[in-house]
Amino acid sequence: MEKTCAICGQARASAWHPGLLKCGNCGYVWADLDFSFDQAREIYAKSYFFGDEYIDYLAESDILKFAFRKFERKLAALFPNQTEKPRLLEIGSAYGLFLDVARDNFDATGLEISDDAAAYARKNGHKVIQADLLSLDAAEEYDIVVSFATLEHLLHPEEVMRQAYRLLKPGGYCYVTTIDIESPFARMRGKKWRMIHPPTHVSYFSARTLTALMKNTGFTVLECGPVWQYRSLDAALLPKYENSILYKAVNRSGLTRVPIPFNFGDIIGLLAKK
């Protein structure tokens, strides 16, 4: 039986890559697999952040916070006349690095599946919920729901965004970033694109299909486009060149911890309103 696309509803899926299906109508790509909430917790155990997906997630915390501050300023500007801090929910809050930079302007809560990440964020004073988003009380109203680099990890993003819509107050905002499989860079790389790695990346959007997802779940899309990323030379050079003369010279200069902006166009951000 042919699988139905969660974005356009058409049953025109075909094999595109080992373990991945592609909709012949809208181009949405997704993983042909399923796992439970408890199995997902195992996938995103501490080893995911320290060795499996990342060498050391927290080693880049200063660079990640630099990027998050730019997003936070953009989002805070949506609430210029608030007398109280807007209530914010972050889906996939990991070790709480965005929560760290958001706490001055938002009453922020994280939602995180990883036991280790949630415990770390709580130690830093953050409110973190460890539960399936779909199980949250829809009467819990937020002014804004955000999600950074998380949608691609979700088996059923349409259900998650539908729940995000329910959790928002009327006129509330939603901001998400995710990977863009139809970007020129992703097309050039084809099936060797760096973002293709199920079972951690299971949903592959484009600006077109991400916009459709948000509209399908009730949102009005305000903007959608590529976003800048930041990385340190440390992260770029360390895995291969740690013992090289070049790395040692750059490291002594202190430049390895300077945030380096880059934009391959394959990460997109979308702002929507309820």
What are its keywords?
alpha/beta, globular, Rossmann fold, four-stranded antiparallel beta sheet, 2 domains, 24% strand
Question: Can you give a write-up of this model?
Answer:
This protein has 10 helices and 13 strands. The chain has 274 residues and is α/β, with parallel strands linked by helices. The chain folds into 2 domains: 32 residues; 236 residues, Rossmann fold (3-Layer(aba) Sandwich), CATH 3.40.50.150. The strands form 3 sheets. Strands 6-5-4-7-8-13-10 form a 7-stranded mixed beta sheet. The two termini are 36 Å apart.
Order of helices and strands: EEEHHHEHEHEEHEHEHEEHHEE
- The first-level CATH class name of the largest domain: Alpha Beta
Q: How would you state the average pLDDT, rounded? A: 91
Taking pLDDT < 50 over at least 5 consecutive residues as the criterion, the unreliable ranges are: none
Strand count = 13
The assigned CATH architecture of the largest domain is 3-Layer(aba) Sandwich
CATH topology grouping of the largest domain: Rossmann fold
Figure out the total of helices: 10
The total domain count is 2
**What's the arrangement of strands in the largest beta sheet?**
6-5-4-7-8-13-10
Q: Give the full name of the CATH homologous superfamily of the largest domain.
A: Vaccinia Virus protein VP39
Shape: globular
Which structural category fits the helices and strands?
Answer: alpha/beta
State the share of residues found in helices, binned by percent: 25-40%
What is the strand content?
A: 15-25%
Rg from C-alpha positions? 19 Å
Give the terminus-to-terminus CA distance. 36 Å
Main pleated-sheet profile? 7 strands, mixed
